[in-house]
Specification:
This protein has helices spanning about 5-10, 30-35, 85-115, 120-145, 150-200, 205-220, 225-260, 260-270, 275-315, 320-330, 335-350, 355-380, 390-430; strands spanning about 5, 40, 45, 55-60, 440-445, 450-455. By secondary structure, it is mainly alpha-helical. It is globular and about 85 Å long. It comes from Geodermatophilus arenarius.
């Protein structure tokens, strides 16, 4: 439909410009054409001298259209002259943002590729740092009481190895004594399953079951070479794991012996403006990693104690190994607890039957719910929580990238990324995250012989 503004509305004057539109052809002015216009009024019924209202549409579809009762018109807003310029500017901004996103994605891919190539070196370093977070508090205690750094680190590390070795010495005999019994019970369970299959409602005869068993045996024999290859790969992985563990322990010794020198050295490699940020961020990440290990250890201990107590009351075998598995499973949040609980239920099912297995399942579920909804929020506090979805994604991503080790390291890495993000966000907002609660910040001081970290009052913002 065609719309036309009145002459006054279109030009801002009472009369349309001479020689333009219908006036150039000798047509009377628009105000003279207004049908039924009262004296002293202009089109639309507005008295002379009244404040001018919003322009109204005339012509086809407007108020003066005699067919107004027959149809309705939709008046779209007129385009502004800046529409094209703004569209070009928005397109340019989108193109720049897309190019930046592509460059950042390419950089992340390159960094991931480099880290993958250096994973053999990075894995012992990361494990060594995790061990150092556990071993540093007793080492610091000994150093504060006059022990030399090397002696304190060596004693703490040897005590840690003795604790792990003693734990293995306690668990191994129980597993060796009961594994044969569990194997016999598993065979008995399979016979019960076979009898159940032969009865209603399946009514599978013994000959058919034998055929299925023979097919399974043939499948295993036909894939013997692949299975042997998997076994060799698994043995190689175990060997590499032991080597990485040994190297991580050696690195942990050096970390707890020379660790206090690391932050001053790192801060000294930067400029005076960056040094406080480097020192503050280093200590925040270390504190976060230490708190994560401590909290997960406490949560794992509570889970292991109560689940182990329930298994002991129900006379389920392998109580101590299952409790230890539950403890270490707590370091892989959500998934680790699920796997440890599944093992406990499975062993209870094989040894004690369906009823006891169902009770064990209820105990595991109850303990996990109390731990997840009550204990962890109290221990961690609001400032350190990672959303459950972030935890699941971190564990899943770590497991897909690096297997069991990746699942174990997924949440600590996510926690460190969150710390760096929050620190950067606060710095961009001008909140000075390098300043401690007491109003001081780290500064590097020293001479050519060495650098030390000192605390001084933060300058006014």
């Amino acid at each position: 439909m065609r719309f036309r503004l009145s002459g006054r509305a279109a030009t801002g004057r009472d009369d349309a410009p001479a020689g333009g539109g219908a006036s150039a052809a000798g047509a009377p002015p628009a105000r003279d054409r207004a049908a039924g216009a009262a004296p002293g009024a202009v089109p639309g019924g507005r008295p002379v001298g009244e404040e001018r209202a919003t322009p109204t549409l005339t012509g086809e579809g407007g108020p003066g259209d005699p067919r107004a009762d027959d149809h309705d018109a939709t008046a779209a807003p007129a385009p502004a002259w800046q529409r094209g310029e703004r569209a070009v500017s928005a397109t340019r901004t989108l193109a720049v943002a897309s190019a930046q996103l592509l460059l950042i994605s390419a950089a992340l891919v390159v960094i991931g590729w480099v880290l993958g190539k250096l994973w053999v070196i990075l894995l012992p370093v990361i494990l060594g740092l995790l061990f150092a977070t556990v071993l540093w508090p007793p080492t610091r205690f000994l150093r504060r009481h006059g022990w030399p750094p090397a002696l304190a680190a060596a004693v703490v590390l040897l005590l840690f190895l003795g604790l792990i070795g003693g734990l293995i010495a306690v668990i191994a005999p129980q597993v060796a004594d009961q594994v044969t019994e569990l194997a016999d019970q598993a065979a008995s369970g399979l016979e019960q399953v076979q009898q159940w299959l032969q009865g209603p409602p399946l009514n599978i005869d013994e000959e058919q079951i034998g055929q299925y068993v023979d097919q399974a045996i043939d499948s295993v024999q036909s894939n013997a070479s692949n299975i042997a290859g998997y076994a060799a790969t698994g043995a190689s992985a175990v060997g590499n794991g032991l080597l990485n563990l040994l190297l991580a322990l050696v690195l942990a010794f050096f970390f707890i012996k020379d660790g206090p020198r690391w932050v001053p050295w790192l801060a000294a490699q930067t400029g005076p403006k960056a040094a406080p940020h480097v020192a503050a961020l280093s200590q925040k990440t270390w504190s976060t990693l230490s708190e994560f290990i401590k909290q997960q250890a406490l949560v794992g201990f509570v889970d292991a104690f109560f689940i182990g107590l329930g298994l002991w009351i129900l006379d389920v075998p392998l109580v101590v190994p299952l409790a230890v598995l539950t403890f270490f499973g707590a370091f892989v949040p959500i998934i680790g607890a699920f796997v440890a609980g599944a093992f406990a239920v499975l062993i209870a099912l094989v040894d004690e039957g369906f009823t006891v297995a169902l009770i064990v399942f209820g105990i595991v579920l109850l303990v996990q719910q109390i731990e997840g909804n009550v204990l962890q929020p109290i221990i961690q506090g609001r400032g350190f929580n990672l959303h459950a979805a972030v935890v699941i994604l971190a564990v899943t991503a770590g497991g897909s990238l690096a297997g069991i080790v990746g699942a174990f390291l997924g949440v600590p890495v996510a926690a460190l990324i969150a710390v760096v993000y929050r620190y950067t966000r606060d710095a961009l907002d001008g909140r000075h995250p390098e300043v401690a609660d007491d109003g001081t910040r780290h500064e590097v001081s020293g001479d050519d012989d060495g650098a030390v970290l000192t605390r001084s009052p933060a300058p006014p913002a």
